[in-house]
Design brief:
The complex is a heterodimer. Chain A is an alpha/beta fold. Chain A has helices at residues 13-23, 35-41, 43-52, 97-104, 117-129, 143-147, 155-165, 169-172, 202-215; strands at residues 5-7, 29-34, 56-62, 65-66, 72-73, 108-113, 134-139, 166-168, 184-191. In chain B, the strands form three sheets. In chain B, strands 3, 4, 5, 6, 7, 8, 9 and 15 form an eight-stranded mixed β-sheet that branches. Chain B has a five-stranded mixed β-sheet with strand order 12-14-13-16-17, sandwiched between helices. The chains are: A alpha/beta, B alpha/beta.
Chain lengths: 216, 381
């Protein structure tokens, strides 16, 4: 891909992107992150970027595990699932990152899966076009370090699982709560523009501030 | 405040001088997190930057503050943050990131007592080794130590110039005394300030190899989206920006260190007095150097042949200057507001040529001139 890229230390992509976006507001800045990166070590940066509603697009590849370090549980590992550091089953509650960033102030929030690939591409495209903090959770199976230890021993069966458990938000709105218990809601979960809300974007606000105090 | 064509003279505390100097050097981006005794730097930048078209952001912590500098710097801006001990701890990870990505920027640490929360309103020099060795792995930074408001101004301008010249994070190790002492500062007219800017690629984008150093060991640095493709990696990388193999990795680490250590002669600054006929020398830096100078003058009046050396650069360590003194005097005394840190470097480079004595002062107070004079007299015998 023909981008300028910077690979930060673990968890710090959002503050780097924040600095770049404020220095060069004309740039389109995309953050690629994972569930451990965004929800654990970089969790503070995530909620503050959402609070500021800065025009970044953060795509979080959620594989429910620390795959690169060989399968330790993350804040998004579901309860009772096994991991290298949860050999008896995970007893911690897990985050719903989408609800978290909506609450924190993100103005575009969506969830997709690797199985629903065309819909995911659309969600990411819309997120990049959206002016404000866009967060897309992309469910991405890790057969090696999550699937194998949890009885889903192939990439195919994990994609099958996504097919069976994902439910589009429009379809979900017609279901009763008990019907959604084992479902994962996908699609556009929050879009301030679609709702007619005008949430100020941070880099724009900053340039407005500069203009205001410069003109004085 | 008296502004003339020949510059401005103003009574300022060190923290205020730091703000004015950073702006004069072209800094237009500041991120920080509230902390005593560095607050006036952030407050000054918050007030001064927006009217100049610059950006001040109070980040969620010091980790974000220092990493945001990398974003701004790769955006093509000059950027700074300021903190104190506890925040400086959080910044260590980011300092490693800035070092390995060869990102110019300035980090001010207004030192206070430590460890941990320590003494938030008292001075210290306890972070001098942390500034050099605080992040993981082998890397090099430049660290400067001002002792007056005027030096805070001069060294802040210099810090930006060194950062731009050598593509390294430059750390200013101030202390609470320098930060809050109000005294005269001369600000030269803008056209008299020497301002260095990072070198840009001299070749067209298709011929640009992002991490290939010039003969001086430093690669040119294009800003993001200026037509040059720049893959910036926080892992060891080769000249093209891909992950380095063992040989490439070794060469890269060596270069990161060499570009600072091998340019020590151009980087290091010291100030000296009474050293020509000295039989003993007092070596110090920061606020302590002021007490030391008074003590040395008093010792001279009492007929003791004592000289004075102030280190304005701590890293790279002024090895040549200190070794030259060690070859001339019988004893070196090193007063510091810590348990005895830079004295270890003095001892190392002295290599047994003379006796080296530490004079630590702990608990958040600076040595008085009398305390240093007493130690001089004891050691002089």
């Amino acid at each position: 891909m023909n981008f300028n890229t910077l690979h930060t230390t673990h968890g710090r992509a959002i503050p780097f992107a924040t600095g770049l976006k404020l220095a060069r507001p004309e740039l389109t800045v995309i953050v690629i992150t994972g569930d451990g990166d965004a929800a654990a070590i970089g969790g503070n940066h995530l909620i503050h970027a959402a609070r500021r509603n800065i025009d970044l697009t953060a795509v979080c590849f959620n594989n429910n595990i620390y795959g690169m370090t060989s399968g330790q549980y993350s804040p998004l590992t579901p309860k009772s699932k096994k991991a290298a550091t949860a050999p008896y089953g995970n007893i911690e509650n897990n985050f719903d990152l989408c609800r978290l960033v909506i609450a924190a102030g993100a103005s575009y929030v969506a969830r997709g899966t690797a199985y629903h690939v065309r819909s995911l591409i659309r969600l990411i495209t819309r997120g990049i076009r959206h002016r404000g903090f866009a967060f897309i959770e992309a469910l991405s199976p890790c057969p090696t370090y999550y699937g194998r230890i949890n009885g889903l021993d192939s990439a195919i069966s994990m994609l099958q699982w996504q097919k069976e458990h994902a439910l589009d938000i429009k379809a979900a709105s017609r279901k009763r709560p008990y019907e959604l218990e084992d479902k994962i809601i996908i699609g556009e979960l929050f879009n301030s523009e679609a709702r007619g809300l005008n949430i100020p974007e941070f880099s724009q606000e900053y340039w407005n501030l500069i203009k205001r105090v410069k003109d004085k | 405040m008296a502004a003339t064509a020949k510059g401005t003279v103003k009574i300022m505390q060190g923290n205020e001088a730091c703000v004015e100097a950073a702006l004069a050097a072209g800094c237009r981006f500041f991120t920080g997190y509230p902390i005593t005794p560095a607050s006036e730097i952030a407050e000054g930048m918050a007030r001064r930057l927006p009217p100049l078209g610059g950006v001040f952001v109070q980040m969620e912590d010091e980790i974000a503050s220092v990493v945001a500098l990398a974003g701004a710097s790769w955006g093509g801006w000059k950027a700074m943050t300021a903190t104190s001990g506890p925040g400086f701890c959080l910044m260590q990870e980011g300092i490693g990131l800035l070092a390995i990505t060869e990102t110019p920027c300035v980090i001010v640490n207004v030192q206070r007592g430590g460890p941990a929360s320590g003494q938030s309103t008292a001075p210290s020099q306890g972070d001098v080794f942390q500034a050099r060795y605080g992040s993981n792995g082998d890397y090099a930074v430049i660290a400067l130590a001002p002792s007056t408001s005027q030096e805070m101004f001069d060294l802040t301008v210099r810090a930006f110039n060194l950062a731009e010249r050598y593509r390294v994070p430059v750390i200013i190790l101030s202390d609470e005394i320098v930060a809050h002492t109000r005294e005269k500062v001369y600000i030269p007219p803008a056209e008299e300030l020497e301002i260095i800017n990072r070198k840009k690629p001299a070749v067209p984008p298709e011929k640009f190899v992002p991490w290939r150093p010039d003969a001086d060991g430093i690669p040119p640095m294009p800003a993001f989206n200026s037509g040059y493709k720049v893959p910036v990696l926080s892992q060891l990388h080769n000249e093209k920006g891909f992950r380095a193999d063992a040989k490439e990795g070794a060469a890269f680490i060596q270069r990161l260190n060499d570009k600072v250590e091998k340019n020590a002669d151009a980087i290091v600054e010291v100030e000296e007095a009474y050293l020509d006929d000295a039989e003993m020398a007092v070596i110090s830096y920061g606020a302590v150097a002021r007490s030391a100078l008074r003590a040395v003058k008093d010792a001279r009046e009492q007929g003791l042949k004592v000289g004075w050396l102030k280190l304005k650069t701590l890293w790279p360590f002024p090895a040549g200057q200190v070794r030259a003194i060690a070859g001339k005097v019988r004893k070196i005394l090193v007063p510091e507001m810590n348990i005895g840190r830079m004295v270890l470097e003095v001892e190392r480079v002295s290599g047994g040529l003379c006796e080296v004595k530490p004079l630590p002062k702990l608990g958040g107070r600076c040595h008085t001139p009398v305390e240093i004079l007493t130690a001089i007299k004891e050691a002089y015998r």
